[in-house]
Amino acid sequence: MATPNTTPAPAAQAPHYPDQVTGMYVLARALKNVGIENVYGLVGIPITEAAYLIQGQGIRFVGFRHEQQAGMAAATEGFLTKKPGVLMTVSSLGFMNGLTATANATVNCYPMIQISGASDPTMVDMNMGTYEQLDQFNTAKPVVKAVFRCSKAEDIPSAVARAYRAAVSGRPGGVYIDMTTPALGQVMNREDAEKLLYQPVDVYSPVAPNQQSVDRAVEILSSAKRPAILLGKGAAYAQVDDKIKTLVEKYNIPYLPMSMAKGLMPDAGPLSALSCRSTIMKEADVVMVIGARLNWMLSFGKGKWNPAIKFIQLDVEPQEIDVNVPIAAPVVGDMGLALDAILAKLEGKTMSTDPAWLTSLQAETKEKNAKFSARLQANKDASPMDHWTAIGAIKPILESNPDIILVNEGANTLDDTRDAVDMSLPRHRVDCATWAIMGMGIGSAIGAAVATGKQVVAVEGDSAFGFSGMDFSTICRFNLPVTVVILNNGGIYNGIGVPLDKTSDPAPTTLDIHARYDKLGEAFGAKTYYVTTPEQLTQALNESIASKKPSLIDVQLAADSGKESGHIGYLNPAPLQDITV
Ligand code: ADP
Ligand code: MG
User: Fold this and answer.
1) Cα(366) to centroid of ligand 1, in Å?
2) pTM of this prediction?
3) How far is the C-alpha of 430 from the C-alpha of 407, rounded, in Å?
4) Cα separation of 293 and 314, whole Å?
5) For residues 485 and 537, what is the distance between their CA atoms, to the nearest angstrom?
6) Taking residues 164-185, what's their average pLDDT?
7) Helices (H) and strands (E) in the chain, counts
8) Which residue, judged by its Cα, is nearest atom 21 of ligand 1?
């Protein structure tokens, strides 16, 4: 961060190492004690030394170019590992940049902890105009699950332990710790500091649902004629893959995954109803919602849904029940324990499923898949390429490398990639999620690679990439096995409206159709490609994946590929007539 004209006063006394330490040391040790392996952040006053000490504890410190992306990385680690990802930032603007990601994590039920350096609260409270003055504690409060402030080093171990518990327990979410300069700089004897540290017991305690709720759910499920299971990212997060597989396969229940639950059960499996979303909504008589919310993405559970439907809902959050529609059978508790109880109760029972329900869903799937293949086939040789041409080349490569984590954001790039690429392993798809935000891609790709050690491919729209592109530098500095594929149609939704002669301002949706994003990758030493045909894209992606090195593929699409997404096109005016490609 910028150096202020007058730097904040140094700690009253400097510690005499090794006999004395500061609160920063206590923080590093406390994080290590709760099992934190990675910290994502961006240093500056007052956290720089803390980051060194964290590294000194053997924790990986992944330094970013923007705090929001560091936060997206921490959140992604949370989703993929069920342990809180940790973000560390400086005060004021660094804190605010990071808070965007922590708020997003909270909305998406990803566990993460944001720790930001903060001004002396006594000065903030009196509005004394201290360095980077901001009441961060109260700013964070409404958008995260819990907030803590450490005003003295003695509070740090308990703040870290409690933040961990708050992040992972019940409905997971983002937690904020205000790490004030006095606490960070507090000098103490090493011996006294060591005595503060403790090993918290049972940081995650799963809570079982009550048996009555399980009995009710099983009664309704087993008497359904047209049952279905709706899998959400909460089910993916819970890491209960085998139990879900048993429930689906033993009782022959078709399943429909939400975007980030794709692959929890194979998208192309015989009971997958991925292509039959509207049929499930219209015709299913019982739907078991597992770790998903009946929010805007599911038409709030009404309207398009069968009015006589009975929902069974498995969720850890009691307040999620009845949010938009009455739930016939809520099962509130930890997903693993809930599924154990349901499977035990189902044992020996027979389902009442109408066999025609399964055959009709399978026939519909076959028909839809054939239409989809025809569409990809029809656009196979488009020149310049459109989204379907490019995605047609990407699809077989990702599907034959199922262990690659796919990060995906954009408008058309998101919608079309999600629809086209079948996933076959759980927790291998990370995207814009509940808030449908742009600007999560590069940070999430880094978090996924660091947290799992796996290879990552980020398929990005050019607009989406713009939010986080500079952190491609972080992929390169840490030599991560990440390939970024940018589908460049020169704009938000599309790139029509480019005034080539630059005699007038571009349309609000216009970006850079002629931009060479590959050159940006080159600046940081990555292997890069600029491709204009599907054959070149296939070769570039195969090569990048084989290299396991940072790489960037700039895919040139036509400026008129893509449309405004989100079904609200009627709200926006048509592009101006006199501004054409
Ligand atoms: P999607 O976007 O895929 O529909 P949501 O994020 O809307 O998924 O919903 C996820 C749901 O999963 C949340 O309501 C959350 O409370 C729930 N959930 C998360 N973790 C668990 C868990 N371990 N056990 C039970 N429910 C969980
Ligand atoms: Mg675009």
Assistant:
1) 30
2) 0.95
3) 5
4) 10
5) 9
6) 98
7) 22, 19
8) 234
Q: How far is the CA of 171 from the centre of ligand 1 (A)?
A: 7
Place of tokens 């566990």: 111
Name the CATH superfamily housing domain 379-571.
Thiamin diphosphate (ThDP)-binding fold, Pyr/PP domains (3.40.50.970)
* Residue 125 to residue 168: CA distance in whole angstroms: 31
At residue 566, the pLDDT reads 61
Nearest to 320 by CA among 297, 289, 342: 289
Give residue for tokens 């850890």.
316
Lookup: tokens for 386: 């459109």
User: Is the pLDDT confidence value at 223 over 50?
Assistant: yes
Cβ-contact 158, 165 below 8 angstroms: no
Question: Which helix H or strand E contains 541, and what residues bound it?
Answer: helix 534-547
**Torsion of Cα atoms, 427 then 115 then 464 then 268, to 10°:** 10
- Separation of 233 CA from ligand 1 center, angstroms? 6
Tokens of 13: 């006394």
Q: Find out if CATH 3.40.50.970 is the number for domain 20-196.
A: yes
Amino acid letter at 172? P
How far CA 385 is from CA of 82, 483, 507, in Å, comes to 39, 20, 22
Closest ligand relative to 488 C-alpha: 2
- Name every residue whose Cβ is closer than 8 Å to that of residue 406 and which is 6 or more positions away in sequence: 398, 417, 421, 423, 428, 429, 430, 456, 457, 458, 459
Q: Give me ligand 2 centre to Cα 385, in Å.
A: 13
Q: Which ligand is nearest to the CA of 414?
A: 2
The reply to whether 211-362 shares the fold of 20-196 is yes
Q: What ranges do the domains of the chain cover?
A: 20-196, 211-362, 379-571
Phi, psi of 176 (to 5 degrees): -115, 135
If you search the block for the tokens 């349309």, which residue do you land on? 507
Q: Tell me, in angstroms, the distance from the centre of ligand 1 to residue 452's CA.
A: 21
The Cα–Cα gap between 562 and 461 comes to 10
Counting ligands in written order, the one closest to the CA of 429 is 1
- Taking CA atoms, 241 is separated from 234, 407, 476, in Å, by 12, 20, 33
C-alpha span between 527 and 475 (Å, rounded): 12
Query: Cα(95)–Cα(112) distance, rounded to whole angstroms?
Result: 14
Position in ligand 1 atom list of the atom nearest CA 260 = 3
For residue 363 the two structure tokens come to: 């026939």
Indicate the pLDDT class of residue 496, thresholds 50, 70 and 90.
confident
Atom of ligand 1 nearest to the CA of 231: 3
Q: How far apart, in whole angstroms, are the C-alpha atoms of residue 227 and residue 358?
A: 9
- State pLDDT tens for residues 22-79: 999 999 999 999 999 999 999 999 999 999 999 999 999 999 999 999 999 999 999 9
CATH no. for 211-362? 3.40.50.1220
Band of the pLDDT at 503, cuts 50, 70, 90? confident
Please enumerate in sequence order all residues whose Cβ is within 8 A of that of 397, keeping only pairs 6 or more positions apart, or say none: 538, 541, 542, 545
Whether residue 580 has pLDDT greater than 50: no
Whose alpha carbon is nearest atom 4 of ligand 1? Answer: 292
In this prediction, residue 17 has a pLDDT band, given cuts at 50, 70 and 90, of: confident
Contacts of 567 (CB under 8 A, 6+ apart): none
pLDDT band per the 50, 70, 90 thresholds, residue 360: very high
